[in-house]
């Protein structure tokens, strides 16, 4: 049996119009091929769909049953086609977003709000992971995109992992000091001015970022003394507030107004806290494309 949707569409038009001529006009075809398709459909089904007389025709019992089923089938097909097109446009689906904790103090919440507003049928989840864990999660397809900071990953390493990485938000590190510290009265400082201060840092083996910051200090002319390491930036701020040391933090952390902490801009050669997005290079996931359009409204990243 070979019945296609076009035959059902033609049949439904004739059944609804109760006229071959009106149905042909509605379908923008001539009457002979319409009649041929109806006859072919009857032949394939092995039933009569219409009772014909010289003046009129009526649907048979089988024809009335097919009219109901055909209308339902074609309606479902239209809904299916519409859903498939929405999926292809990234309007339906799921997006799993990896982030470093400090990214939520910056522009990421606003970005997610904009994405939700424009794509309300896409469900998304946040996965707070360090850069190393995000790297593995991207490679194992446990997340769809990841956000982390400097240093940027080398292109050959990205290529081997089948990933892309694009700069999305520019930012610098500042110095978080206790509000009673003598430096707290300054509007800005130079990085070497914290040379003798106990340094609070994220775990050096957690990602490349804390090691990058240490190298920035070395480049500025001093070897910092790491007093304590922690897994989360808010832990560092709690220790700064307790007067246990100083910490290099992204500038956007100053938005949270941590009690007992002052955030001082670095007025020369401040370490970069730029935020990057990473995603699979060859994964043509529509929701990822839609998300990138929000992030890069002018043009898509290469």
Automatic annotation (TrEMBL):
<dbReference type="GO" id="GO:0032993">
    <property type="term" value="C:protein-DNA complex"/>
</dbReference>
<dbReference type="GO" id="GO:0003700">
    <property type="term" value="F:DNA-binding transcription factor activity"/>
</dbReference>
<feature type="domain" description="HTH lysR-type">
    <location>
        <begin position="3"/>
        <end position="60"/>
    </location>
</feature>
<dbReference type="InterPro" id="IPR005119">
    <property type="entry name" value="LysR_subst-bd"/>
</dbReference>
<protein>
    <recommendedName>
        <fullName>HTH lysR-type domain-containing protein</fullName>
    </recommendedName>
</protein>
<dbReference type="InterPro" id="IPR000847">
    <property type="entry name" value="LysR_HTH_N"/>
</dbReference>
<comment type="similarity">
    <text>Belongs to the LysR transcriptional regulatory family.</text>
</comment>
<keyword id="KW-0805">Transcription regulation</keyword>
<dbReference type="InterPro" id="IPR036390">
    <property type="entry name" value="WH_DNA-bd_sf"/>
</dbReference>
<keyword id="KW-0238">DNA-binding</keyword>
<dbReference type="Pfam" id="PF00126">
    <property type="entry name" value="HTH_1"/>
</dbReference>
<dbReference type="GO" id="GO:0003677">
    <property type="term" value="F:DNA binding"/>
</dbReference>
<keyword id="KW-0804">Transcription</keyword>
<dbReference type="Pfam" id="PF03466">
    <property type="entry name" value="LysR_substrate"/>
</dbReference>
<dbReference type="InterPro" id="IPR036388">
    <property type="entry name" value="WH-like_DNA-bd_sf"/>
</dbReference>
């Amino acid at each position: 049996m070979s019945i296609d949707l076009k035959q059902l569409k033609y049949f439904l038009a004739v059944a609804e119009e109760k006229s071959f001529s009106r149905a042909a006009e509605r379908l923008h075809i001539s009457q002979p091929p319409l009649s041929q398709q109806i006859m072919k459909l009857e032949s394939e089904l092995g039933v009569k769909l219409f009772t014909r007389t010289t003046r009129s025709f009526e649907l048979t019992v089988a024809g009335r049953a097919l009219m109901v089923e055909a209308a339902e089938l074609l309606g479902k097909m239209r809904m299916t086609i519409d859903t498939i097109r929405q999926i292809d446009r990234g309007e339906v689906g799921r997006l799993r977003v990896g982030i470093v904790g400090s990214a939520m103090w910056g522009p990421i919440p606003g970005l997610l709000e904009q994405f939700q507003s424009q794509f309300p049928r896409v469900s998304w989840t946040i996965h707070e992971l360090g850069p190393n864990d995000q790297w593995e999660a991207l490679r194992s397809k446990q997340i769809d995109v990841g956000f982390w900071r400097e240093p940027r990953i080398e292109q050959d390493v990205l290529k081997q992992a089948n990933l892309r990485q694009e700069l999305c938000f520019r930012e610098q590190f500042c110095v978080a000091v206790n509000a009673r510290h003598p430096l707290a009265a300054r509007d800005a400082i130079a990085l070497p001015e914290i040379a003798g201060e106990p340094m609070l840092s994220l775990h050096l083996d957690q990602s490349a970022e804390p090691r990058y910051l240490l190298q920035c200090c070395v480049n500025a002319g001093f070897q910092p003394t790491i007093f304590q390491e922690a897994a989360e930036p808010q832990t560092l701020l709690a220790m700064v507030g307790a007067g246990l040391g100083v910490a290099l933090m992204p500038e956007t952390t100053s938005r949270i107004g941590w009690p007992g902490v002052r955030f001082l801009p670095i007025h020369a050669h401040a370490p970069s806290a730029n935020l990057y997005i990473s995603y699979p290079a060859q994964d043509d996931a529509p929701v990822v494309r839609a998300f990138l359009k929000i992030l890069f409204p002018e043009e898509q990243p290469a």
